[in-house]
Design goal:
The protein has helices at residues 3-16, 91-94, 96-104, 163-176, 196-204, 215-223, 248-257, 259-272, and strands at 25-29, 41-47, 65-71, 74-80, 108-117, 127-135, 180-187, 209-211, 227-237. A hairpin with a 2-residue loop joins strand 3 (65-71) and strand 4 (74-80). It is α/β, with parallel strands linked by helices. Helix 1 packs across helix 3 (96-104) and helix 4 crosses helix 8. It has a 5-stranded mixed barrel with strand order 5-8-7-6-9, surrounded by 4 helices. The chain binds hypoxanthine.
Amino acid sequence: MQEYKRQIVEAANAIRARVDSIPDTALVLGSGSGGFAAQMESAVRIPYSEVPHMRVSTVKGHDGAFLFGAVRGRPVMVMSGRLHMYEGYEPKEITFPIRVMQELGVRTLLLTNAAGGVNTGYHEGCFMMLCDHINFTGRNPLIGPNDDSLGTRFPDMSCVYDPALRDAARAIALEKGIPLFEGVYMQFYGPSFETPAEIRMARAMGADAVGMSTVPETIVARLCGLRVFGVSCITNMAAGILDQPLNHEEVMETAERVKYTFRGLLDRVIAAM
Ligand code: HPA
């Protein structure tokens, strides 16, 4: 067995040994949405540091544990806190937990993140579900020798965000009056925020929002054949759109302000699956 595969299996076995059953749905929580974890029903918590070969998140506002519990009665595996390339981790390291999910038998992955709004029709505190993405990091988590037992060398990326899940989310948002847009997410490497010129470029290239995560996880999840749903909390308008500087505190503040609405949307999307 190849080394990477061996590590995946070891991590999955360590998790299996601590939970009764593995849900078929997993959720990755982005910046500021850690509070989501508090409302989970009877959750088992497994810190990343206790899972073999897992890296730990180093970012303020990011927890670092897997949670196994239920949301609205539906079992779900949660990654409370994610890993980013800008922390110095390799794309392969930050997508390791997605491989572990596949090994565990997870079938559907929900990814959340905080993002800057590029589309001038957006506003701080609204949400955008991803209909597509642009990988602007220059990196790809699948670079390197391919283990065919884990997936094909050249995975298709023509429809990465599941249309049926998007339909469900659209209906929920409409019914609950939640401001949910649909757009293209562009990932920059970070950790510096973008310049106004980069945001003009992003818009010209077709981006509606920019952020520093999600794309590597999505690429691996699609390789693994998982259904993917992605949603951004637009915590700020991107650089140069408003006449004000950007900072991480604002990102956290906005995420905190809209957390109940965000949670309500996620809960219902999970329950609808
Ligand atoms: N740019 C990149 N990442 C982000 C932003 C942004 O404006 N806001 C939240 N995450």
